[in-house]
């Protein structure tokens, strides 16, 4: 008796004969089957099938091709059917085809039956029927078969049935009080249709009914943003009604009705809110003549400040003395002290937008503190921003250059600034108190009645500006500083804004506005000038001014002068003095120790460095280096938050010139040697937690007293290699020239496992090749580097070249009598033979390797050889033997603490289980392998496991899950162009 056929279209198209799944064939055959299934036994014309496969441009043979595909599908459903036989499953009726199916052989028909039954029921029985119906869906109808990102209208219509069923299920569950039964289905459908307001409204109500009101409110905010961003509309009535039901029923404990900062309805004039409600807007309890108490006094201008009633204690600082008189002329003519706006201001749109956002709505922003390096344009931005905002502050603008980075005597004191401000605000000189705190109290009391804008330029630190900030009222301070003023985080309403270098586009716009047609006519010269100026606004402005002042000088000539200066400030001609003057203000303020370190920093191979590297450079203790870097970082360095320090190119050029002027060649050379010592010792220490297979000789201790960095484990070492990769690569290239060939090839070998686990195979080959060129006559080093190069070739799929390097290495190790290293080479040859499917040869080489390792007592090496043997056994069909060997290898690697080995054993164990159709074991152990490799930060091997999972699901008729696994694998490789990445892209392309 023939087993019955069954089909699925509520997700990927699938077919079964009894319990055995049938391969539906090519994509075109799956499309034909999908449309037949979506019709659920209804007829589909040949013309419809032609349109389905080719849309608007069918070939002349289209009808014949359709007929061939139909014939192939028939024979899949009825094996042994003669070529031209009609069959009994996929039948033809004139120019139409249809599938002969019953109500239980197709998931779509079962879904429709259950939905109809649910519609005729009520209460929990109806909800259970809906739940059962919706559980039949695994994805969109005929998922994975969209053409050009568009689904066929027939499939869209079936998807519409699902959405209607979800909405009906939600309504029934809400009425019956058992929404948890269908909440997963509602969530899933809402993810598929994020702009379906009726569906999203039901999701909100379902979440709330399930006790997830906070999640429901967040979901509403997300929907509101999505509708505005994607469609440019506000939520409709149904969605708003759902939100209102959330808010009206058991309002949240914090009293909030909206994430948008809308004033809650419960704050009504004359009605005091509770303490929890007091955070919204200006509290209603602050009413004229009614003094608040305790914590309430912090809102707005305290009501206790009443005419003629002197406060006491802490209140005194806010109290204006009774004898203070402000002239009517001063009140009538507000101060307008802002410097002129810069006529060529450009760019900075991101920072401007952030400032506008901080000042928008109900936020109470009292200060914006702009920080950045010298010459980055802080003052220009602050002045421009102040002019844009001036109209919002009708009571005028105050300005002071605090000269925070001038010489000691030129720095403006807070008292000096306050006296100037109080005079500008109309206070008689005799009425200004002598004490700083009293001056600040008077100043704040005056500002409490006004809306003013105060610009404080060149602030040194928090102590210099804290007395100049308004206490209450509607005034705003804009301050600038070369330092990140940490005290800004203290008072509410003060926000730091960091100003970075211009972007390339902003720099180009600046030069174009200053130079006009000349910039537009020579974009290559403009790009060169931008690069030489390092996108520093001060440098760009100086070059532009110099160019305008020399009409006969072309931009290409200016660019040439800068290039000839080779990174020196001399390329700026007469503008050099201006740059040096600006930089010198900060340099002269340094202690002698910090100044020395500043001059040595350009000797580091990269534009950024760690505290440990700076300590080695300066021959300092870590503690001393940290203190000096903090001193430099307040003015001349940038620490973006990753623990490293960066120096702008022009400041670097300034430091180079200072170093050549003040430090002798011997001191500078010693600094470079210390840095090389640090990186050689640190690279060796970092490679050890990665369980390297290529043994790296331990470097000699530093003759200059330098120690390497310590590492807490594999993750710490991988992170260090990632941030120091550029520096290490540069040292490998330069070390031989400095007479340090051993440093070059040792660092190259230390990088091997990092390159392997991050899939940087081309970089691996390039760096190790540079290391090999530095080995000279050192045969042991040559052998190690040949073997390392073979590994890079293996991962680049250049097996012949890899084998050649291994043969070189084997000959050298044999001559040196290095048996352990010979074992590694034999095992590597086994790996190549496995890739070449020469399994018996692979076993021979792996057995030879295992014998060599055992003789030398190398457990890790012997276990790696066991892995190679097990893989060959599996490919030869000896699955029981392979499973036992993989399990043994995993136990050995776990005992060794070798995560890479554990993950590799797990991956191959899972693969072998998949080969014998033990799916539960395969999937569970594959997931273990992913977790292990991710824990080891081995992204390439994580990707390999995900590819295996995707291949398994693809072969088992689940293309959606396969595509997801392949996409995750490609994400792990992070844009690399390895052979594996190309194979994954091919799979995804085919999958679409």
Automatic annotation (TrEMBL):
Provide the residue span(s) of the region labelled Disordered.
249-268
Which GO biological process categories is it annotated with? phosphorelay signal transduction system; regulation of DNA-templated transcription
Key words of the record: DNA-binding, Transcription, Transcription regulation
Extract the DNA-binding region annotation as residue ranges. Answer: 1-101
What range(s) does the OmpR/PhoB-type domain occupy?
1-101
Can you name one GO molecular function term for this protein?
DNA binding
Looking up InterPro entries in the UniProt record yields:
AfsR-DnrI-RedD_regulator, BTAD, NB-ARC, OmpR/PhoB-type_DNA-bd, P-loop_NTPase, Sig_transdc_resp-reg_C-effctor, TPR-like_helical_dom_sf, WH-like_DNA-bd_sf
Q: Which family does it belong to?
A: Belongs to the AfsR/DnrI/RedD regulatory family.
Protein name according to UniProt: DNA-binding transcriptional activator of the SARP family
Species source reads: Micromonospora rhizosphaerae
């Amino acid at each position: 008796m023939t087993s019955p056929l069954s089909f699925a279209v509520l997700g990927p198209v699938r077919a079964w004969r009894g319990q055995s799944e049938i391969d539906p064939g090519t994509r075109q055959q799956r499309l034909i089957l999908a449309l037949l299934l979506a019709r659920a036994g209804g007829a589909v014309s040949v013309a419809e099938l032609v349109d389905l496969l080719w849309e608007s441009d069918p070939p002349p043979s289209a009808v014949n091709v359709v007929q061939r595909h139909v014939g192939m599908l028939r024979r899949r459903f009825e094996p042994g059917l003669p070529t031209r036989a009609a069959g009994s499953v996929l039948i033809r009726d004139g120019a139409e085809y249809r599938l002969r199916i019953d109500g239980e052989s197709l998931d779509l028909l079962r879904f429709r039956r259950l939905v109809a039954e649910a519609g005729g029921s009520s209460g929990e029985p109806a909800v259970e029927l809906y739940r059962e119906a919706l559980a039949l869906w695994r994805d969109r109808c005929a998922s994975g078969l969209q053409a050009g990102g568009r689904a066929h209208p027939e499939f869209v219509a079936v998807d519409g049935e699902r959405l209607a069923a979800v909405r009906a299920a939600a309504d029934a569950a809400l009425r019956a009080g058992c929404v948890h039964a269908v909440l997963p289905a509602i969530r899933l459908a809402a993810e598929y249709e994020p702009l379906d307001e009726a569906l999203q409204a039901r999701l909100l109500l379902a979440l709330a009914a399930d006790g997830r009101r906070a999640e429901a409110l967040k979901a509403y905010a997300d929907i509101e943003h999505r509708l505005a961003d994607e469609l440019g509309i506000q939520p409709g009535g149904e969605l708003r009604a759902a939100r209102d039901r959330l808010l009206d029923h058991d309002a949240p404990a914090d009293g909030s009705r909206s994430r948008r900062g809308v004033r809650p309805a419960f704050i009504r004039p004359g009605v005091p809110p509770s303490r929890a409600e007091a955070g919204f807007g200006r509290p209603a309890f602050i009413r004229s003549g009614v003094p608040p108490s305790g914590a309430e006094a912090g809102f707005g201008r305290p009501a206790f400040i009443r005419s003629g009633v002197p406060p006491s204690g802490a209140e005194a600082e806010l109290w204006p003395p009774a004898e203070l008189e402000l002239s009517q002329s001063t009140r009538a003519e507000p101060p307008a002290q802002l410097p002129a706006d810069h006529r060529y201001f450009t760019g900075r749109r991101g920072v401007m937008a952030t400032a506008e956002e901080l000042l928008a709505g109900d936020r109470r922003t009292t200060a914006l503190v702009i920080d950045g390096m010298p010459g980055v344009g802080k003052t220009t931005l602050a002045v421009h921003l102040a002019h844009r905002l001036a109209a919002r502050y009708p009571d005028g603008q105050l300005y002071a250059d605090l000269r925070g980075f001038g010489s000691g005597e030129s720095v403006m004191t807070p008292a000096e600034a306050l006296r100037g401000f109080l005079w500008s605000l109309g206070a008689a000189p005799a009425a200004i108190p002598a004490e700083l705190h009293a001056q600040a109290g008077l100043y704040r009391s005056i500002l409490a009645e006004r809306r003013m804008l105060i610009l404080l330029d060149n602030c040194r630190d928090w102590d210099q500006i804290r007395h100049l900030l308004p206490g209450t009222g509607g005034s705003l301070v804009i301050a600038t500083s070369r330092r990140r003023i940490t005290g800004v985080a203290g008072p509410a309403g003060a926000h730091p804004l960091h100003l970075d270098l211009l972007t390339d586009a902003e720099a180009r716009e600046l030069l174009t506005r200053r130079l006009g047609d000349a910039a537009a006519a020579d974009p290559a010269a403009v790009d060169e000038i931008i690069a030489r100026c390092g996108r520093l606004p001060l440098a760009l402005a100086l070059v532009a001014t110099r160019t305008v002042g020399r009409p006969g000088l072309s931009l290409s000539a200016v660019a040439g002068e800068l290039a000839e200066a080779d990174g020196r400030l001399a390329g700026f001609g007469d503008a050099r003095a201006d740059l040096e003057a600006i930089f010198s203000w900060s340099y002269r303020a340094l202690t002698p120790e910090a100044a020395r370190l500043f001059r040595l920093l350009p000797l580091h191979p990269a534009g950024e460095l760690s505290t440990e590297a700076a300590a080695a450079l300066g021959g300092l203790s870590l503690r001393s280096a940290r203190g000096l870097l903090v001193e430099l970082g307040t003015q001349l360095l940038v620490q973006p938050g990753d623990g490293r320090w960066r120096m702008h190119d022009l400041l670097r050029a300034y430091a180079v010139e200072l170093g050549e002027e003040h430090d002798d060649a011997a001191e500078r050379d010693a600094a470079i040697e210390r840095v090389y010592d640090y990186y050689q010792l640190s690279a060796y220490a970092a490679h050890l937690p990665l369980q390297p297979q290529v043994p790296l000789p331990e470097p000699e201790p530093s003759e200059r007293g330098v120690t390497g960095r310590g590492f807490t484990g594999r993750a710490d070492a991988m992170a260090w290699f990632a941030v120091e990769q550029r520096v290490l690569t540069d040292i490998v290239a330069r070390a031989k020239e400095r007479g340090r060939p051993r440093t070059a090839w040792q660092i190259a070998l230390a990088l091997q496992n990092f390159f392997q686990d991050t899939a940087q195979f081309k970089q691996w080959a390039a760096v190790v090749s540079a290391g090999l060129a530095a080995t000279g006559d050192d045969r042991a080093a040559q052998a190690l580097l040949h073997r390392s190069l073979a590994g890079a070739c293996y991962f680049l799929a250049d097996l012949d070249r890899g084998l050649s390097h291994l043969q070189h290495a084997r000959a050298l190790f044999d001559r040196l009598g290095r048996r352990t290293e010979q074992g590694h080479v034999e095992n590597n040859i086994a790996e190549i033979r496995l890739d070449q499917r020469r399994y018996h040869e692979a076993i021979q080489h792996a057995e030879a390797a295992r014998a060599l390792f055992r003789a030398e007592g190398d457990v890790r090496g012997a276990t790696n050889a066991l892995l190679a043997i097990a893989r060959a056994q599996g490919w030869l069909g000896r699955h029981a033997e392979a499973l036992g060997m993989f399990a043994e290898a995993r136990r050995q690697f776990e005992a060794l603490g070798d995560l890479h080995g554990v993950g590799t054993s797990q991956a191959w164990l899972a693969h072998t289980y998949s080969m014998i159709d033990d799916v539960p074991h395969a999937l569970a152990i594959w997931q273990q392998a992913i977790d292990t490799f991710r824990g080891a930060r081995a992204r390439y091997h994580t990707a390999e496991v995900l590819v295996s999972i995707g291949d398994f699901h693809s072969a088992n008729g689940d293309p959606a899950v396969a595509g997801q696994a392949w996409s995750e694998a490609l994400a792990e490789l992070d844009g690399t162009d390895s052979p594996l990445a190309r194979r994954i892209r091919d799979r995804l392309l085919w999958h679409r």
